[in-house]
Automatic annotation (TrEMBL):
It comes from Bifidobacterium breve DSM 20213 = JCM 1192. This is Efflux ABC transporter, permease protein. Residues 664-690 are annotated as: Disordered. Belongs to the ABC-4 integral membrane protein family. One of its GO terms (cellular component) is plasma membrane. The chain crosses the membrane at residues 16-37, 289-314, 334-363, 383-402, 433-452, 472-495, 527-549, 781-809, 830-857, 877-895.
Length: 912
């Protein structure tokens, strides 16, 4: 019987190809998922231990669990001297030792400044976690190896001298707080010689853009101490000769005896294993589980294609099966024969799929595309990448063929004498209809309940969403899932009816359309299965696209209402030249460069507020950059423009008829005694080093000019020029041309940051920055998810091609008859194209409608917490999906149409 089955498979090979392709795509995705997870784990392990450099062992805290506060304090106050590094270096088998200590420093070359993350050096270059691409690593005193980006930014090369200062010391010096009488806080830094240039190829310090290497005395000074032996350290990296493992183990035991209490030596391999386990469940990472869910989705869609294929195969072979029954084959043999054929098809297609998955993953690793994400990936093979896809592919193929196998057992010997009837006219069962209806009703109920509870929460009423928001959100998700599952189960009822209705309208287009309309009604079960496969993919794509569009627009609206200025740059070192350069950047529509000073005030209730005073040349200049209603507002010498709401609390700021601002202008604030002395000579607004300014307030609803202050107040710039207020900083307010097609928000934000990069203390912020980060994240997630679901859509389109091919095979005599009575080849091709379009577009449109509704509900449940939810229709993505579906459907109709018109009418009638 098995030999007969193989012969039948060879005879029907062309019919099995689409099903095989569906299996191949699904299993390739699953195999690639496992390989991607392996590569991610490998990359994670290498990144986690990248800071070890060439070390293969590390001295670290054994465990802090169960320790009291004093013991924990002892652990994290250990110094270099406590580790007896000289004795460790003298231990047989130890090649080199490096202590782990780091510091954030500011590097200056003339008037250029740059921030850098700095680490300790080592005796041997191999032990460093970064690569020295030019020069050498620091060894003697007062040496530094700069990261390439910092060296380029400062314009320095090996052999030049730069000034290094601790970021903490610089922050204290710039603010002046706590520094009165303390000269070290305002220290100008340490002059060091650049001996090398570094790169970070393994991403050990990717978050910081790499790391510079400091000699021991410099890292000591940056940590505020005078002796390297007193440097706090709780990580020591070792390069131990492990060519002979027993000898390496003996070396580790000797080192263990020299270590302080609660410290131990751990191998790099053990650290890598722990890092993988920390983000894994069993032997499978979270990333792999996430991706596998889409692989399973793809295989479920493939199962619909496989089921259709075997239904037609069994229908076509009814006479053959009946003849086999006549010569002695029993029902069990026929049943096993169909399952064996499915299993063999699944095995072959799955093995090809695994090979394709390995090839795709190898190409991805070699392409270097993942380097843009800061990851370097390698192809890492494992048994799950082979076994799981093949087993899953075989299982899904066999399961999908069970119905067809059962149909095969129903064939009686007498059917060998009956005409072949390929059309499946069976009606779907009542149980399915009832179950699907219940699922839809329960889903609608859950979705409506969740939306109602969310509406009550937003309205400020008592609701379950206030107390159990996660449960309400899960109820909404469950509701959508139940609705969708119910619609898929009941597709055999409503989808053929919908296609029949649309087809009735299309039928008026001509004979070809009328034939297509008639053909699509002949096998409603297969039409429903094919349409449901496409419906699943399109609905998910549309849901994600709608949710992403709603997220971006809702958050953009929320950011716009929370910020009245698109972008600000502020800092004590800002110069007018930098502001002029920033104003010329493409995408900056208008800007204001203004002096500032932080002052304090009391509101009408006597509450203290920190206020940033900004000097502007009238309200007309302010209108260019501030998004607020400034009609009827003036800014004169005796008035101040104040925000209506506090940026800190969001509550109304109560103000009287006048408000007095005060500021300490003593030496601790301005930085020089001469400045303070000169200030006290001004026009009575100052006394004893305190500057005051009393003005009449005007309140306008503008929001969060700067989130660092409770309020930002605008006064006439003359107060700064006449000495009423002494500026200790500047601010630049910018309006972005959002409609500019020449540049993106991300480019504008990046270019503005670059314009101020020479000053270390200038901060660029505002809604454009937040919007840029938000849109980048949303676009990345959307591209990933749509890309994953596209696999299911691709398999569904293979199903459309399969359905058309099977229909052509079934209708051989019918097509021949149409040709015989005068239908041209072009008309026959056109009828198949219209049939394909009906299958694809009707299912696609329903999927878009469902996906949009699901996306709207999801957006309302999540983003209404942040502002008024926007309910967009994602024309671009939905149109693209429908366009791809239509194009793929037309392409899918080409091969079946060629087969339909290739056979002469007389020959086709004879064969049918």
């Amino acid at each position: 019987m098995f030999s007969i089955t193989v012969k039948l498979m060879k005879k029907s090979a062309r019919m099995l190809i689409p099903a095989g392709i569906a299996i191949l795509i699904g299993t390739a995705f699953i195999a690639a998922t496992f390989l991607f997870g392996n590569a991610m784990n490998d990359s994670l392990a290498r990144q986690t231990t990248a800071q070890l450099g060439g070390a293969n062992y590390v001295i670290s805290v054994d465990s802090s669990e169960g320790l009291n506060e004093q013991e924990r304090n002892d652990i994290y106050t250990r110094t270099v001297n406590d580790f007896q590094l000289d004795r460790i270096r003298a231990t047989e088998g130890v090649k080199d030792v490096r202590v782990e200590s780091s510091s954030s420093v500011t590097v200056a070359n003339g008037d250029k400044h740059a921030s850098s993350y700095a680490i300790t050096t080592a005796a041997q270059r191999d032990l460093l976690p970064v690569s020295i691409i030019q020069g050498d690593q620091p060894v003697d005193g007062n040496e530094i190896a700069l990261t390439k980006s910092v060296a380029d930014q400062l314009g320095v090369k090996v052999g030049d001298s730069v000034t290094v200062n601790s970021r903490t010391a610089q922050a204290v010096a710039s603010t002046g707080y706590g520094s009165a009488g303390n000269d070290t806080a305002a220290d100008s830094g340490m002059t060091v010689r650049v001996v090398g240039i570094t790169e970070d190829p393994n991403g050990a310090y990717a978050y910081y853009g790499g790391a510079s290497v400091l000699s021991d005395n410099v890292i000591t000074a940056m940590n505020g101490i005078d002796d390297f032996g007193k440097l706090n350290v709780y990580l020591v990296y070792l390069d131990i000769d492990d060519a002979d493992q027993p000898s390496a183990d003996a070396t580790v035991k000797q080192i263990d005896k020299l270590l302080p209490k609660h410290f131990t030596v751990q191998s790099r391999a053990a650290m890598e294993e722990e890092s993988i386990k920390s983000v894994s469940k069993g032997d499978t990472s979270i990333t792999t589980i996430f991706l596998l869910s889409f692989g399973i989705l793809a295989m479920l869609v493939a199962a619909l294609v496989i089921a259709n294929t075997f239904q037609v195969l069994v229908a076509q072979r009814r006479r053959t099966l009946a003849l086999l029954r006549t010569i002695g084959a029993n029902k069990g043999q026929l049943y096993v024969s169909v399952l064996f054929e499915a299993g063999l098809l699944g095995l072959i297609a799955s093995m090809l799929g695994v090979g394709l998955g390995i090839g795709l993953m190898a190409a991805l690793c070699q392409s270097g595309l993942m380097k843009a994400t800061g990851m370097t990936m390698r192809l890492v093979l494992s048994w799950p990448a082979f076994v799981v896809p093949i087993a899953f592919g075989i299982a899904m193929t066999v399961i999908a063929s069970l119905g067809s196998a059962r149909s095969a057992t129903a064939v009686t010997p007498l059917e060998a004498l009956r005409p072949i009837e390929l059309n499946d006219t069976r009606r779907a069962g009542k149980i399915r209809a009832i179950l699907a209806g219940l699922l839809v009703l329960v889903g609608i109920g859950l979705a409506a309940f969740s939306a109602w509870q969310m509406n009550e929460k937003i309205a400020g009423h008592d609701s379950l969403a206030d107390k159990q928001y996660p449960m309400v959100l899960l109820a909404a998700i469950a509701g959508c899932a139940l609705i969708f599952l119910g619609l898929v189960l009941s597709a055999t009822f409503w989808l053929p009816v919908l296609m029949r209705g649309v087809g009735a309208l299309v039928a008026f287009a001509g004979p070809s359309a009328k034939v297509a309309h008639a053909n699509i009604q002949k096998n409603p079960r297969r039409v429903a299965a094919t349409g449901a496969a496409l419906l699943i993919g399109v609905t998910l794509v549309s849901t994600i696209a709608t949710g992403a569009a709603s997220a971006k627009q809702t958050m953009n609206e929320a950011l716009t209402t929370r910020y009245s200025v698109d972008m600000i740059a502020a800092g004590a070192d800002m110069t007018s030249k930098q502001a002029d350069e920033a104003a010329k950047i493409k995408g900056i529509k208008d800007s204001i460069y203004a002096p500032t000073r932080m002052m304090s005030m009391k509101d009408a209730n006597g509450k203290d507020l920190n206020v940033l005073i900004v000097g502007v040349d009238g309200v007309d200049a302010l209108r260019k950059v501030v998004r607020a209603d400034l009609s009827g507002v003036t800014i004169s010498g005796d008035s101040v423009l104040m925000p209506k709401y506090s940026a800190a609390t969001g509550k109304d700021i109560p103000l009287g008829k006048s408000v007095t601002f005060t500021s300490d202008v003593s030496g601790s604030q301005t930085g020089t005694a001469d400045a303070a002395a000169s200030d006290t000579e001004n026009d009575g607004g100052q006394s004893d080093g305190v500057q005051t300014l009393t003005l009449a307030p005007q309140k306008v609803d503008y929001r969060r000019i700067s989130a660092n202050y409770a309020a930002v107040a605008f006064v006439d710039a003359g107060h700064f020029t006449n000495g009423d207020v002494k500026a200790n900083g500047h601010i630049m307010l910018m309006r972005i041309d959002a409609e500019s097609a020449d540049t993106t928000l991300n480019d504008v934000f990046t270019n503005v940051q670059n314009a101020f990069s020479a000053s270390a203390d200038i901060d660029v912020s505002g809604p454009v920055a937040a919007r840029t980060q938000w849109e980048t994240m949303i676009n990345g997630m959307m591209a990933l998810l749509v890309g994953l679901i596209a696999v299911a859509v691709l398999i569904a389109l293979v199903g459309v091609a399969n359905t058309l091919s099977l229909s052509v095979i079934e209708r051989t005599r019918e097509s021949a008859t149409l040709r015989a009575i005068g239908m041209t080849r072009g008309q026959l091709r056109c009828s198949l194209a219209v049939e394909a379009l009906l299958l694809s577009l009707v299912s696609g449109v329903v999927g878009v409608v469902l996906g949009t509704l699901f996306g709207w509900l999801g957006s309302y449940m999540v983003f209404s917490l942040y502002g008024d939810t926007v309910f967009p229709f994602e024309w671009t993505t939905n149109g693209a999906v429908l366009g791809v579906a239509a194009l793929a459907a037309l392409l899918a109709s080409v091969a079946p149409a060629r087969r339909a018109v290739k056979t002469p009418p007389v020959e086709a009638l004879a064969e049918a």
